[in-house]
Amino acid sequence: MLPTPSEPRFVKRQHSDLNTTFRGILHPSSTSEARLHQYLGIKYASIPARFRQSKLCTKYPPVVNATEYGPICPQPQGCMEELLFGVDPASMPCQNLKQDEMECLNLNITCPAGLNQFSRVPVMLWVHGGGDRGSGSHWAYDGAPLVRQSIKAGKPVILITFNFRIGFLGFAANPMIRDDNKEAGEEGTGNYGLRDQQRCLEWVHRNILGFGGDPDNITLFGASSGAADIICHLLSRSNQTNPMFARAIIQSAVFEPTLPDVATAGWQLSRIISALHVSDMEKLREVKVDKLLGLGMTLRIVDDGVFFRDGWMDYFAHTHSGRRSEHKHPRKPSGQRSGSLLRPPAAHPHTHLHPHVSHSGSRSRSQARSTPKRRSISRSSSRSAVDDTLQPLIIGDSVSDSLLWSMNASLWTPSGATRRIKAICQSLTKASCLLRAYDITSYTPDEEIVDRVLELVNDARVAWPTECIAENAKRERGGHGVWRYVFDQEGPYRGIPHHAADIMYLFDTVPLAESCLATPDVYSGDFFDGPFDTSDDEGDAKSDATPRAGYDDADWETTAVTEYSYNNVRDAIQGKWLAFAYGDMPWREDKVFVFGPEGETGERSTVIFEGRRRKELWKSALEPLGHQVVSKVGLELSRGPG
């Protein structure tokens, strides 16, 4: 009899390389056909001090308790995923994760039972989003449904989620912190969260063989700020010289192509440091962590001159003549083998979990921990070889990712938005072109301005950068190795496409009440609790914006998500992601894969992309401004006035 959630059954995994035994659990959703083991809260790195780079964990006690989630990085209250999903709090699993600044670097492994060191199944490593909040231990990222589906499909995988430093603790940088890092013998400053992620990759590459995974076949996948982090890893110096993953999936990345250097980041941080009344590193480290929460909302990645590869900014270069700019391939590190990225992958057991020792499985553990080979994408037709130091990618976005910022966008007035855009562009001609393209004027009706601002924010912060990254990645890979998708499926609770809706279908963990699979309705109100009403009873402006109950002037029609459409999109995205993890071509490279609306899935001509995204408008209105200005427009509008 399988365990119930209140009666966990414990399992053990002897890890000979680490000379320890991990004590995990049999997942409560296990069945006789798909028994799932989980090892939770395994510490992968240690933090020597605040604002110091993490150190890989290599030694463990004889027995490691891996039956419960470990601590997560301290963060403000509230969960971005739950806000976005729109799930009734009463329907959500109860979860109370401990927060600990120095003990938050831990990972969670979900794997099929019965694996051994010769199984070498693909590994999928999830990078969570959320900006200055969120964790890989959130219930929404439980790997059991996806791993169970992988067994059912005959493509078993190991799925890993993990925690890293975020917000102020993960991304603060200024010259004072940089000098302290130098004194400690560390190269680079800031980006502590990114370097934590590198330590996790290193741990997985060294040790996943002991859990039955293939260290040479790791797929990084993530959404939102997690997807942006994956872009940073693709463009990092370490990925040039010592790549640790074989391929990547980028889902609705909120990525800013223009990153501050340490001096600029320090100027932005100076006001925060001043408010804390600290003047040196010792005092900054003594500040209680509670006082730092919420200070990192605008702190993210910095270009410290060390983390990123030389010339990484050229990745976002544009020529405005309509011709594509030429990109140089990164220099191939010495010792890297030339050859096709698209060669057949090593054989993996697709239909059983106790494979015979294969040719690839007979390698020694020391060989298995060497620099990973680039896994191929299987093809039946001939094709050009591309630089095999470049990982293949799946990349896409949602039609309404900007609903993430709808609360702030609802505060704009037509005249306020128009003035702000003109001020940022600093060119009346270019500003006029941008305003015309998105039909924004001082006379735009109040009930329409929010939608138009959100369209511009969506393109500036997600859709256009995603397209630029996809196009430049394909060009850098010789025209191959990049697969484009659009996710326009409605969220099962909100009935409209929105940021993070794809996560609900991919992980299949959100409890679906019968009411959300019912009849069509009209969704009235802002994306979260309703737009802010900024006037008092007399009509005068108020200094503090407060939410109002509804937004009757701009009701959005919603579409009921039927059980069929939910299952169809869920099965499609899970199947494509699993196939990609196995090195299979997910769909034709010259096609775009669509997820939704209303349950639609399949390969479509690139012509459909033109109809679903404002590609021609990007060329005429955004390219002339350049990424720096467009990024600033998107940021300013998404933060609201004031």
UniProtKB/TrEMBL annotation:
The family note in this entry says: Belongs to the type-B carboxylesterase/lipase family.
Q: Does the keyword Hydrolase apply?
A: yes
PROSITE patterns, per database record = CARBOXYLESTERASE_B_1
The scientific name of the source species is: Ephemerocybe angulata
Polar residues bias: start-end ranges: 359-368
Protein name according to UniProt: Carboxylic ester hydrolase
Keyword Secreted among UniProt keywords:
no
Return the Pfam families for the record.
Answer: COesterase
Residue ranges of the region described as Disordered: 320-384
